[in-house]
Specification:
The chain is an alpha+beta fold and 178 residues long. The chain has one domain: Cyclic Phosphodiesterase, Chain: A, CATH 3.90.1140.10. The strands form three sheets. The protein has a four-stranded antiparallel sheet with strand order 3-1-9-10. It is globular, with a radius of gyration of 16 Å. The model has no long low-confidence stretch (mean pLDDT 95). Bound molecules: adenosine-2'-monophosphate. The site of adenosine-2'-monophosphate has 8 residues, from strand 3.
Length: 178
Amino acid sequence: MPATRRLFFAIDVPENIQQQLVDWRALHFAADTGRPVTAANLHMTLAFLGEVSAQKQQALSALAERIQQPGFTLTLDDAGHWPRSRVVWLGPKSTPRGLLQLASMLRSQAARSGCAQIPQPFHPHITLYRQTCHSVRLPPPGFRWQWQVNEFVLYESLFERGRTRYRPLARWPLGQSS
Ligand code: 2AM
């Protein structure tokens, strides 16, 4: 077992929506936009933990287990390009309160446990492309995907045979939506 693992808490994207996003992306972005994130790797990071020991992973999992938060509806109706980090993303125009609360709890638990510096503020997004070209033409508004988020996930980020893969390690349910 490795001494540390690269971990993050996230919300995953339902499989049918992963496929819809990939199909829509192929239609609306130029081929040279950047490196597309594979369908199975699409996710929304809640808290990035960085390299974490098994002991710290256990402690953070025990804290995650105790979180009692309602689920929420997530709508993806906004897109943008961050030239500095060279990513194109999808996200909500309006962030659900449940998402903000969940991310804020996980991020403060991570910070108190001495995990990697958590950037402030939280910008909920799903990365669609990495290593983007300088100028990206974004699709016209009017797109929208929506689903009910009922759980959050602890992922390990692996780099194997030249590819990044995210492996789910644990899942925790959210309560009934308020
Ligand atoms: P990104 O999609 O905006 O690049 C796994 O690497 C996930 O953790 C990705 O969603 C990535 O966000 C996020 N991540 C990676 N390194 C990070 C860092 N140093 N700070 C915050 N988030 C990071």
